[in-house]
Amino acid sequence: MNLTSIPALQDNYIWTLNNNRGECLIVDPGEAAPVLAVLEKNQWQPQAILLTHHHHDHVGGVKELVEKYPHLVVYGPGETQDKGTSHIVGEGDKVAVLGLEFSVYHTPGHTLGHISYFSFPYLFCGDTMFSGGCGRLFEGTAEQMFISFQKFNKLPEETLVCCAHEYTLSNLTFAHALWPQDAEIERYYHKIKELRVKNNVTVPSTLACERQVNVFLRTQDIELQKNIGHKTSPLHEWQIFATLREKKDRF
Question: For the whole prediction, is pTM greater than 0.85?
Answer without folding.
Answer: yes
